[in-house]
Design brief:
mainly alpha, 5 helices, 0% strand
């Protein structure tokens, strides 16, 4: 775990999730964990996890209670979320499309 408190889902926590579903999930997690946190796929993974975990509602007390991003995410994926591997991968693809649209909009705005 990192020594700093993250505002939303922490990129360093991605690798802790690799054994929670099947081989396609593992491959995704391993690939995303190897990317810089600013890569569009890392951003899409973070967006997906923020929504699954309810990170936007997290505060310091909840962060401590759940022992940080990695433990919280593992808990959500093993206890709360009954989504199978295919459903989580579909969520990731949807988040990828959303991130791509946001980056395109930003690029257009900067070019104007």
């Amino acid at each position: 775990m990192s020594s700093r408190t993250e505002f939303l889902f922490a990129h360093w926590a991605v690798s802790a999730l690799k054994d929670l579903r099947g081989p396609r999930w593992r491959a995704l997690v391993e690939r995303v964990a190897g990317l810089p946190s600013t890569h569009p796929d890392a951003l899409a993974f973070a967006l997906m996890m923020v929504r699954l975990n309810g990170c936007a509602r997290c505060d310091a007390k909840r962060y401590r209670e759940r022992d940080g991003c990695a433990r919280c995410s593992r808990w959500v994926l093993t206890t709360l979320s009954k989504e199978n591997e295919a459903s989580l991968l579909a969520r990731f693809r949807a988040a990828q499309r959303e991130i791509a649209r946001a980056l395109e909009n930003d690029a257009r705005r900067l070019a104007a």
